[in-house]
Amino acid sequence: MLRQGFFFTLVSGCGWCLDFGVYFLVAAQLGVPVAAANLMSSFVGVTFVFAFATRHIFANRQGRWPLRRKYVFYLAYEACLVSAVSLLAQGIFAWCTSSPYAAWFSDAQWKLAAKCLVTPVTLTCNFFVMRWLTERI
Predict the structure, then answer these.
(1) Three-class secondary structure assignment of 40-109
(2) Is 29 exposed, middle or buried (0-12, 13-18, 19+ CB in 10 A)?
């Protein structure tokens, strides 16, 4: 599991870079609200990580569900997780921009900070759900 965790973190890092690039463009450059931008950008990274991880990190057992059904389930799970985390990021952004520290950074920088702060939560949840989905179902 340690080996899987390490490689999943590396692959997720690549997916996160794709996600973050889209997020930066949409949130920081185009001014889209944090929650909406995070919802849009996350699915780029999610698809990349699922495609790579199911082929190279986890033993994708052909159990009860074919890979396509697992992907649909994973997208539904991600829609729920990303929605919750996007609201959390929006709350972090709102708190940061109304705090005494608000002037320390621009709104664009606070948006990026909010994204960074919620990333460990999503990474951890995604690892365990992906492992369960590919190796147990």
Answers:
(1) HHHHHHHHHHHHHHHHHCCCCCCCCCCHHHHHHHHHHHHHHHHHHHHHHHHHHHHHHHHCCCHHHCCHHH
(2) exposed
**Confidence at residue 136, expressed as pLDDT on a 0 to 100 scale:** 83
Q: Report the C-alpha gap between 4 and 12 in whole angstroms.
A: 12
Residue of 71, 72, 70 whose CA lies nearest to 137: 70
CA distance 90 to 84: 10
- What would the pLDDT profile of 19-62 be if each residue is shown by its tens digit? 989 988 998 889 898 888 888 898 899 999 999 999 889 887 77
d(CA 23, CA 16): 10
AA identity, residue 84: A
Per-residue exposure over 94-130, b if at least 16 CB sit within 10 Å of its own CB, e if not = eebbeeeeeeeeeeeebbbebbeebbeebbeebbeeb
- CA atoms within 13 A of residue 96's CA, in its CB half-sphere: 20
